[in-house]
Design brief:
The structure is a homodimer of 905-residue chains. Chain A has 36 helices and 33 strands. Chain A has 905 residues and is α/β, with parallel strands linked by helices. Chain A has an eight-stranded mixed sheet with strand order 14-24-23-16-17-18-19-15. The two termini of chain A are 25 Å apart. Chains A and B meet through helix 24, helix 26, helix 28, helix 29 and helix 31 of A and helix 24, helix 26, helix 28, helix 29 and helix 31 of B.
């Protein structure tokens, strides 16, 4: 990011500080969220204490240059003078000092940032003035608070040391809370606090009020790069170059007596959305005391009795704010000696359910339209609503924590291998498959289980991807989990379970617990899957209404990734408009892998191909029938064939042991030779996808023939099948052309044989950088492109997702080296750029080229918006993610319109 | 390629046929090489028989549509009429028939194409007319030749069948050659030939002369896609869409008696370049008889006695041609009854040595300038001249043939593992390392050996890359070679050798022979390495002169890839202007790999790092000293660390066997656990390069510190070291920034410690698509970019070079699916596009950004031209390839100028 701060030459002429009256809500980039809202309220005429904001640009300049930019000090001084004028007090005036608070305020709120220093401006010299105005005890309390906050946040003294001093003071005075400490005791505390500063930081609280202010501002700037803030930003994908603003505000006090107090409130209930103030109030207290919960606040409604005029005013301001922001607002206020001050407001956080409810309520109230309502809910929130969850307020015995790989809540007996999972499930038992990691061999077990837990692997590991695809709850990469397959026990940081013990898997939070937790089903999911049986529920209605609106607005189709008729039917109920990815390798697992083994090891290939053909034909027929009238895009075999063979190392050990025991076995030797021959150092970059045609030319012909026959079977029965075929791992147009010839020949042969017309468009996966870079050529042989963004991300980054997750990726995330995991959300700059190139050049060659995406990113809200923006015809995602994808595709349209509206405002 | 042929609507209006008088030499794309030269000679007024050329465009249209394009038949008829007029005979005229030859003529000459059908137009009806004109026996001989050629090339009848019939006829007649067969015997042969046609192709020679012509032309068109032609094109990188032209020429006969004859000659000696005709002549013969060598031709000079006027004329024509073409010409001619006809000319092929000699001779003769001379030699020819070779005319007992992976000729005892190679070499024995394939573990053996042979792996396999880098002769992927490590024998298609037997390895031809062959050293190499000792040799002078001119003209620097002082010195002697790639992993092989093992397995890391530091410091010092005053770009550790550990499968087998034998071993178990932990499914996409910083943060700091110390050591001694550091496998700018921080901190610490100024620019490898796609960002943290085109090719194509070579790549090459191997020569459309993007966007961010390339492509002539064109500052290649790179960098400039001259002509 190149900002003005990068050009120090301009510094002197730059505006680094704005008073509240000079800003507005639209300036959050420059003023931070808090500053922008303070300015907005000032503009609305609400009673905000006088103050000013030091911009994020000043912060960036400070961090870049290591010192305050030229002109900042002068501008702060100038604005301080204006605050003095407005408040009628002077900063540092011994007679009646102005005190200010210094608070950070970034674009996005962020834990780890320095929060607040109150009472800046208080010194030994100004203390008597404050005491004269508001009493000795109050002044001493203010002073010790300043020393404490300054010591902790500016000088980095351990906060516990201060608490210990307070504890001792309370014990000495024999009181339970600070309220019981008198002026002398508090003065003593402040003195001891200042000793702590000298002892641990080597310096005292500055006795120059201006130095206090300068150091506090600097501390806010520097807290931008505190480790916690850096980590939080990297996790949340917040740009590390934004910087924070600093708000300097005249102090108002809610703790000057019974006519004072502080409160926090919402303009409507953040759980249900019902209009009407909702919050807490505490007499004779500062804002932090309300939140800290040391004393019990009263419900906000009681303020009507305590201070009727203030309550009346507050209600008026809340109404003003909600009408102005057209949304639920979250407000902090203070009453000082009967005078109401609004200290902060922001659009309030809410639960996923409330987001949908409030959005539709505001529509009904005529405050916003349906487009705006759609902007205010997210696919992620919808996904949360679709999964069952564990009832709140249950005690959990956590076995281990891992990655929330596939959301949901499931309970079952732990089982440690696929075979046993299948066996127990067949006995009617409910099982959770727990594995070190999973491979395609584990698929039957994953199907049989209600949830999957792995010790290794990331959010895009085999377990995570497959579990999400099947809608199985999954926790992947559970930290510290050890699966002992010999002793049949699972050990985690929180305890141990034996195989057969019941565990509870929270795939939404990424937690595995010992024992059985209570599960609540999702009414929303039930309603979406079976609209006829939908209950008369406000939340269900809100979701259905906003989904319908999203469908109306979206220009991007939503297809699903499905390999079985069951998945296809479920996805269709959830709104899928076809299948964008039907993986033929999933039809060749379990016992059927021997078919591929026979082909690979060249054992009676003809029979193997014929079995493969018959199996495919039947499966294809089922899927096409389930999606009758809608497109079904079948992907030809993609994985390296040796994935269907035993593991080289395991087999080598087995063979060596057999031989050592004098039981050398001809079959094993032959198998081992075959496995060795087909072994690859980097299978991801090896003999896969379209490359298989060069080595096993019959393969794609057999698969195409099976699809053509399945189509003809359905046509004869009066169905409307719409099959398409896509060729994986194309790097060069000639590869696609060669595969296309094989496919077309096979399809034509079936059509001739059956005497019917079978039309199967052929497309190319775009999952290698070269395919994207030469898309203009590839498009000459393709009816459509389907972006395989998983593989495209792997090759563009040179990154094997599983290997990376096992080694350096966690460290990268911790240190913020990758702002967002490119496997979770599309990497717009790298992978996204290739997608744009391929879209533009593919369509230049062939304007009617179909364009879709079938990687995991098809279910990621942010990615869906990107794909809609670049103009793809459809996204394809796993069945459970279909509703969220529909919602996000609609949001992509209204957000783009909203953005352009904002631009022209 | 979109050609006019793709738009059939235009067909009728297209010119499909040009007479010789209508074309010229610059039209080779349309007329093919042969047709363009025939046209050129016609324009020059040389005696070319009348004829015309059917264009390559007609061929493309025919192949695209499956039939002759509209208008072609009419145009052929029209041009045939003109030939009739010029020859004074009519096609199909029974009284005096015009006969024509039909010959293919593509842009590039190509084996597998249908070559020639002579005497087209001869039928039962026209035969008597020809007999009346030239005699019965002659006519019958012409007829049987037509039937034979037509049967073989148009109808695809096995040629051997015709030879058998001729054999029988000769036996019956009791004569040794066809000359002895009389008219009746030849008539009988023709009859039997026609029976063969009917029997094997189901049809006779057409008795309509026009049908003969149409079918012959069609056969030429179709031969474009003959398997041999397809294979040849794919091997030579010739565009499969060019198509061939067809030349139809009035027959002239060199076999009508003693006043007739045929010859082939050169305008100067193709081996020495000396001016003066040079060739063979055969009386009473057709051209094919001269080449076939059945009768012994006489030296051309004898023609001066045989036919003085014809000889005089010919000498005049040869002079005309050489002056016109300004190059050595290769000419075919025929004398028919005392009249001289020139049938064909082309710029003549020559040996690598002759290319250099002739180019400089022509400069001395004032025919061409030095720029043109530079255009006429290639880096590949120069490379040939630099290697020793086996003396010609030796009998070879070929053990196996493979890929010419690293040129040269070497003889030594076969040895089957690295350890023994080192051991035997230490005893003073000369060894050739023969391995199934090589890994970094084999490096000591490769160093000890004079040549390397592998059974598996391609031109960019480990063995090939390392051998080229070290200048070791290498044959990789020897077909059918089996290395039996237990019985210590090597078996190939041509025999068997035991370990210790002598073999001869021809790395230039890719042949491994049994026994010792005589080797000739290269005088050119000796002269370049030691200019003072250069012999007074015309070839050496020519090479030195053209290299000097290339240095003068080139704008691209030539650096070398070198890891040792010896390699650095050698490269410097060969003209390298620095080191573009110094691989630190090569300093950690052999026994030293235990240092990395200690780090990986966390055994006394501190000592390991300290040993690594000291080793690096000494090696860096040596390399910097050898390149004093020139840049030395050191690459930080790149390979996955587990490459320094034992192989997982081997170790697993070992551990299992030990355990089964009750000898379970704590150390092995620990090692195995470590190897398992660091094992990766796709190491190429795993924990490598800059990613290591996240897991082993000390690594780059230690390497940077060692380089800084080495630099300071040399500075103190008064040297001028110019170190640079480059960071491998960057995908994201933040990675580079993080590594740069580590490096700068380490360098600063050394500078402070030593009290000296050490400046080490830091650059980024661009070897992942994402780095290229985000080059603008990466450049913010980089002083220079170095393109690693090996890895960039692997990820752009999603192709592991070793795995691909072992599985589908050979099939791809066979079928022409990849026009040129992207690992041999830069893939301009895909990888090259990324290079262009990175160059443009990197320089946009930072105009002074250094740009180089250090992949294997840095030594490939075609790639060097590409890199020069896109504006890289330098290429870096292995020492032996430095002269060729210098030459090609110069050629890039003059070829670009030549091209623009041609454009404006």
């Amino acid at each position: 990011m190149t900002t003005q701060a990068d050009r120090p030459a301009d510094a002197a002429g730059t505006t680094w500080v704005l008073s509240f009256a000079e800003g507005h809500r639209g300036m959050a980039d420059l003023l931070g969220g808090k500053g922008a809202n303070l300015a907005e309220m000032t503009r609305l005429g609400l009673p905000v204490p006088p103050g000013f904001t030091i911009t994020t640009q000043a912060c960036r300049a400070y961090l870049a240059e290591g010192h305050e930019p030229e002109g900042l000090a002068e501008q702060v001084e100038e604005h301080l003078r204006r605050v003095e004028d407005a408040a009628g007090r002077r900063f540092g005036d011994p007679a009646d000092p102005l005190l200010v608070s210094v608070r950070s305020g970034a674009r996005f709120s962020m834990p780890g940032m320095m929060d607040t220093i109150l009472n800046v401006g208080l010194t030994d010299e100004t203390l008597p003035g404050l005491a004269r105005r508001a009493g000795e005890r109050f002044a001493q309390d203010c002073y010790r608070r300043l020393v404490q906050m300054y010591g902790r946040t500016v000088l980095g003294v351990d906060g516990q040391l201060f608490e210990d001093v307070l504890d001792q003071a309370r014990q000495r005075a024999g009181v339970r809370d600070d309220q019981g400490l008198d002026a002398a005791a508090l003065a003593d505390v402040a003195t001891r606090f200042r000793e702590l500063l000298r002892e641990h930081a080597g310096e005292d609280l500055p006795q120059d009020p201006r130095e206090q202010l300068t150091r506090a501002v600097r501390a806010v700037f520097e807290s931008w790069n505190s480790p916690r803030a850096v980590l939080y930003r990297s996790r949340e994908g917040i740009d590390p170059n934004l910087g924070t603003a600093v708000n300097v505000v005249a102090m108002v006090f809610g703790n000057t007596g019974e006519r004072s107090g502080s409160g926090v409130c919402f303009t409507r209930d953040p759980a249900s959305g019902h209009r009407g103030a909702y919050g807490d109030y505490l007499t004779n207290a500062q804002g932090e005391d309300v939140v800290a919960g040391i004393r019990q606040p009263v419900p906000l409604a009681r303020l009507a009795d305590i201070d009727p005029p203030a309550y009346e005013q507050l209600m008026g301001h809340l109404a003003t704010l909600e009408n102005h922001y057209r949304d639920l607002c979250d407000v902090e206020f203070t009453i000082e000696d009967g005078r109401l001050w609004i200290l902060q407001t922001r659009v309030g956080k809410r639960t996923a359910g409330a987001a949908f409810r409030i959005a539709t309520q505001l529509v009904d109230e005529g405050v916003i339209d349906l487009d705006e309502a759609l902007r205010r809910v997210t696919g992620e929130q919808l996904t949360q609503l679709l999964h069952p969850r564990f009832a709140a307020d249950q005690e959990r015995r956590v076995l281990a924590r891992g990655l929330p790989a596939s959301p949901g809540a499931a309970v079952g007996e732990a089982v440690l291998d696929s075979e046993r999972a299948v066996e127990w499930a067949a006995q009617g038992r409910t099982v959770v498959l727990v594995r070190p990691e999973t491979s395609p061999e584990d698929l039957p077990g994953m199907v049989a289980a209600v949830a999957v837990v792995t010790a290794r692997g990331g959010l895009t590991s085999h377990a995570a991807v497959v579990a999400r695809g099947m809608g199985r709850t999954c926790v992947a990469g559970a930290e510290g989990l050890q699966v002992d397959l010999e002793r049949r026990v699972v050990t985690g940081p929180g305890g141990q379970v034996r195989e057969g013990d019941v565990i509870s898997v929270d795939g939404t939070a990424g937690v595995v617990s010992i024992g059985e937790l209570d599960v609540e089903a999702s009414v929303v999911a039930a309603a979406l899957e079976d609209p006829g049986a939908a209950p008369d529920d406000e939340l269900v209605e809100a979701v259905v209404r906003l989904l319908a609106h999203a469908d109306l607005r979206r220009t991007t189709g939503v297809l699903t990734n499905a390999d079985t008729p069951e998945d296809a039917r479920r996805a269709r109920r959830l709104g899928a408009e076809g299948i964008g990815l039907c993986r033929t390798e999933h039809m060749l697992l379990g016992e059927r892998r021997h078919i591929v083994e026979d082909i690979v090891l060249d054992r009676d290939r003809e029979t193997a191909f014929s079995r493969m053909h018959d199996l495919h034909r039947e499966e294809f027929r089922g899927v096409l029938e389930a999606m009758d009238g809608l497109p079904v895009v079948v992907r030809l075999l993609d994985p390296p064939l040796h994935e269907f063979l035993p593991d080289l190392t395991e087999l080598s050990v087995h063979a060596a042991l057999e031989e050592a025991a004098g039981r050398a076995d001809e079959d094993t030797a032959r198998l081992l030779a075959g496995v060795r021959r087909w072994h690859e150092t980097n299978p991801m970059l090896g003999l896969r996808g379209v490359r298989l045609v060069a080595v096993v030319p019959e393969l794609y012909a057999v698969q195409a023939r099976a699809l053509a026959h399945a189509t003809a079977d359905l046509l004869e029965k009066g169905f409307d099948p719409r099959p398409e075929l896509m060729v994986p791992l194309v790097a060069e147009a000639a590869e696609l052309a060669a595969a296309r010839r094989v496919i077309e020949q096979a399809v034509r042969a079936v059509a001739d044989e059956r005497g019917t017309t079978v039309s199967i468009p052929v497309g190319s996966m775009i999952e290698l950088p070269r395919a994207a870079l030469t898309a203009g050529e590839v498009a000459r042989h393709a009816d459509f492109f389907s972006f395989g963004t998983n593989d495209l991300t792997q090759t563009t980054w040179g990154l094997s997702r599983d290997d990376a997750e096992a080694s350096f990726m966690p460290a990268y995330r911790e240190s913020g080296l990758v702002p967002t995991d490119p496997f979770d959300s599309i990497d717009v700059d790298g992978v996204g750029r290739l997608v744009r190139i391929a879209v533009a050049e593919g369509r230049a060659t062939r304007p009617d080229l179909g364009l879709g995406i079938c990687g995991e990113h098809g279910g990621d809200p942010a990615s869906v918006r990107f794909f809609a923006e670049v103009g793809l015809d459809y996204v394809s995602c796993s069945p459970p993610r279909v509703p969220a994808a529909r919602l996000e595709a609609g949001r992509a349209v209204v957000l783009a319109e909203g953005a352009s509206e904002a631009d022209t405002r």
